[in-house]
Protein: APC family permease
Organism: Streptomyces halobius
Amino acid sequence: MSKLTDVPKRILIGRALRSDKLGETLLPKRIALPVFASDPLSSVAYAPGEVLLVLSVAGASAYAFSPWIAVAVVVLMFTVVASYRQNVHAYPSGGGDYEVATTNLGPRAGLTVASALLVDYVLTVAVSISSGIENLGSAIPFVVEHKTLCAIAVIVLLTLMNLRGVKESGKLFAIPTYVFVTGVFLLLIWGAFRGLVLGDTMKAPTADLTLHAEQGGLAGFALVFLLLRAFSSGCAALTGVEAISNGVPAFRKPKSKNAGTTLAFMGGLAVTMFCGIIVLALATNVHMAENPAKDLLDNGTPVGAGFTQEPVISQVAAAVFGGGSLPFVVLAAATALVLFLAANTAYNGFPLLGSILAQDRYLPRQLHTRGDRLAFSNGIVLLAGAAAVLVYLYDADSTKLIQLYIVGVFVSFTLSQVGMVRHWNRHLAAEKDPAKRRRMHRSRAINAFGATFTGLVLTVVLLTKFTHGAWVALLGMVIFFVTMSAIRRHYDRVADELAADDTPDDGVVRPSRVHSLVLVSKVHKPTLRALNYAKLMRSDTLEAVSVDVDPADTRALRDEWERRGIEVPLKVLASPYREITRPIIDHVKSLRRQSPRDAVSVYIPEYVVGHWYEHLLHNQSALRLKGRLLFTPGVMVTSVPWQLDSSEAAKLRARKRAEWNAPGAVRRGPVTQPKKEKPASQSKKDKAAAKP
Amino acid sequence: MSKLTDVPKRILIGRALRSDKLGETLLPKRIALPVFASDPLSSVAYAPGEVLLVLSVAGASAYAFSPWIAVAVVVLMFTVVASYRQNVHAYPSGGGDYEVATTNLGPRAGLTVASALLVDYVLTVAVSISSGIENLGSAIPFVVEHKTLCAIAVIVLLTLMNLRGVKESGKLFAIPTYVFVTGVFLLLIWGAFRGLVLGDTMKAPTADLTLHAEQGGLAGFALVFLLLRAFSSGCAALTGVEAISNGVPAFRKPKSKNAGTTLAFMGGLAVTMFCGIIVLALATNVHMAENPAKDLLDNGTPVGAGFTQEPVISQVAAAVFGGGSLPFVVLAAATALVLFLAANTAYNGFPLLGSILAQDRYLPRQLHTRGDRLAFSNGIVLLAGAAAVLVYLYDADSTKLIQLYIVGVFVSFTLSQVGMVRHWNRHLAAEKDPAKRRRMHRSRAINAFGATFTGLVLTVVLLTKFTHGAWVALLGMVIFFVTMSAIRRHYDRVADELAADDTPDDGVVRPSRVHSLVLVSKVHKPTLRALNYAKLMRSDTLEAVSVDVDPADTRALRDEWERRGIEVPLKVLASPYREITRPIIDHVKSLRRQSPRDAVSVYIPEYVVGHWYEHLLHNQSALRLKGRLLFTPGVMVTSVPWQLDSSEAAKLRARKRAEWNAPGAVRRGPVTQPKKEKPASQSKKDKAAAKP
């Protein structure tokens, strides 16, 4: 009767809305690079230093291994980048690792990846901000003397910005990122120039210190273990690579191709910067230790607890540009800024992932709809709170926090690559075209190599870092996993409970008559409105009900009722204990007992107020009554609002809230999503169901 | 049509309810005494010591004045008791000082008294518990080493007990109170016996210490000021006397007579104990100082900060019974217990006063109805929180807290006695019978003397204690006064806004047609129920509305709609931003624009859940939508509940909550209150209005 007439109105409403909001715009590659790559590029600020720190355990001689470790990290980076280029072509909908794992390995694997990513986001905030503070502190000493305080202040600042809904502008990201990249490249080029062409000796601030080897003269298995530890620390440079796979919809067409190109570009930049910094660090004789207070010696005596160990980038910059010079300060500032922006990516990624998880019913449903300000706010606050706790517990020490960081990332990498292998297996079983098959074989080989390599790294990371803190990350993952499973089970159970039968009655009682009650306390405008509305609805019986709390008020009510000649009969319920709720509940229940097949409709006038404190003064009894009525079967409760003058203020506030921009809007791209790929079994079911 | 038929049902419902609840029982005098008098009687534990403390400023020689001060306190006590006996006969409804002041002096005076009483309750808790801890500490040293901690622990314990709603059993009060009174009397008698008959020398633990006089050799004006200060400290013994005037309804008949007798008895006990303790303290050479660390000297050297100054009762008990003996410990325990019970009276009095104030619209309305558990809980928590803050700020030192205590009490006394004088004036103007006139003259004289005396004491207290802490209490009173005035103004303003006109339309638009919408997301039982109910209500148009958040879900919904052949037309609203609220609000607004004189009724299925966390998973979008809909004029919102299985648990919890006993129920007496006396002008208006 009305299906066809829906279409014109829908198009009308749809177009109207879309033109109202100036919406998200698609990103060109030059803007997409900073937006998505700020996390991996900024990792370059701490990853090289981590390598040197671990190697220092065996003394300065072990630094000679660092180029080899850099090479290993570079190979891993190329592998991961190549693997993810397959991802972005195969899954252009932006589901990322979670989608790949769920589709190919099943829901439990997907949930594992989701838990790992959630933990990862928290640690991105903690590590990036701590490292940013450390880099900033090389230019501003005050900051580093109050590391934890400043770090938590930055977390609070980012939280407030995101709660308010600052639109994540692509340009906002581009500038600091390009300044940082340019700065590092200038550093490398100038350092190479001075060292190779001019022949200068550049000395890092720690060049004259010596390292006390905690375990000097390592050989054999112990040395290999140490090298593996150093390597797994260097893998911190890979964090954030997967973000592009989540953001494919935001690219301009051809989306997958552009995403893949950006990935490659990012990988290239990252490895260049990583290797360059390691080389310069060795050339300028940087000395860094895990326990600088004990193991760094100045003329044989330990430097003690007052010594601040600057990050490797800042030491190299001091050697190449000169400590305190303009390029030095600019680079320190840009590094800190890029790291803070990298933390901001987590604020945007967290709700995005939450929305996808909510769609699959692993998180409360209201996270799924866009622009749900309150739900996003809760997620953002949770993220910030968890990060702040970690920062506090670990004294904003990026080295300690990185030990927790890498686990989640590599769980995600490994499962996603394994999933891709299964993806190609599945497609190879169905595909006949030899050209396509060749490409699929190649892709599968890349993903298989990637899966093996990242799986190995994951094992190494677990082995070497478990006691150093990785167990905390694993614990976090387990907590997320268990909670999300429980939420899913709840929703499934409720869905079963609510599923309508196919019986003629649909499993639902069909009442035949309805009795209406209007709750009144005195005759004023809200009461009269409620009576008018109730009379409109033409129920089988209608009566007004009042509770005798104060005899004087009741008498006045009756008198006024008579005076105005209101036709609706007024029933007064006694209330010896001056309660409101119980007499009404009892009355409703007695009505239901008399006529069990009839429904009861209760009309309650409700004041719409403007300020939060006014809620304390109005509607409390009504709310409590409503709550109790809802437990009674066969009852529906109608609120008849009366907007007080003060509610205008609240209306304006609600309108403003509705125009709030959800974080991460830029990354999601516009709303019309291409259909997600379904596993073979499910798409067959869908095809069967869709037949008319 | 139905006014006469209300009566039988009302009687029926009324009787049924009253027999359900086993209700409050009326109190015989022997139980009423402990219930109402525990506060004044327990003041005896600290008031004598306060007198000695203040006098010690002028050295031990000033102790000689203490008997005179005791006499002054006794006279004041008799005056106040005699005055309040007039109160209980003239105002037997239990309104207390607030009612007397409001009725006779106007609403502002009444509000002042109310503010003073509220501050008084907070300080009763703080002072009684601190003093109880000090007395307990004389038997258990651990307690006194962690005074603040133990005091706050006791506050928390009492709060939990009251939140849970332990029925204030009269017997629970009686035993510790009688043990305390008996114990003190035994102390006095045995002390008198040993001292006068046996001729023993009883030495208090501080007998051998000497006092360093901070201002030795005082004379003239300064000495008088000091004596006045000591006197006003001794007035702490009067706190709580007015409680009986609040509790007259709880006595057995003849209520006023019994209340008056109990007052007299209580006064007698209190003065006897007060004087007896002062005498014994002097006889056993108790030395107490305001700053014991500096001013108590042991062989010329100050005792220092480690010294614990025991309360006077425990020092006297140590001298008479022997420190550590069984009677000593029993008395210490009974004293502490009685003080904790006195604090509990505040937990019961606060909500009682709150209920009366709410009836006059000075506090949120829901405090007025009995058994409103949530409102009472809020009040109890507020009281406990304020008391805990004070205890923390003043280190649980009862001496410092008492400086704040006395102001509120005497504001209340003075205003109440002045009000009584006006009361008698008014009655004398109307009364002709000479016998009654003579009695009224006598009562007026008593109240006038009481008013003068308490007014003087109030001035003395303000002068002597303002800088010592009384300003804090005054600040609290001002805050309460301002808040309550603001609440009253708000209610008055809203009442004006809502008052129905006398125009034919009653100032309210009368819509002629109604359009119903049912919100659906998928076809399950709650949806079917909502559709059934909406169909019952027979509105002019009815349609089902869904928002297209997920194309797959919408397609499934349409298919199911067709398959079941549901007659209600289904309209799908587009939502490019995956919001639910805005498309629906826009649709409703467009309906209203098309037909401005019609009402719109929106049916929203609502899940009734069992556990708090389930609220996070359901209904969130519905709640937000409801909130926005209520701002739109001409709209009513109907919740059609679906009780999930888990809601059974919540139903049971709600039933249990309904059977909760409100604190202070014992004191209020049963519900049928005699009519409150109205001021002359208002009762004339009532008589005029009541004419048919």
Summary: Chain B touches chain A through 116 residues (CB under 8 Å). The beta strands of chain B are 210-211, 296-298, 301-302, 514-519, 541-548, 570-574, 599-608, 635-643. The mean pLDDT of chain B is 81.
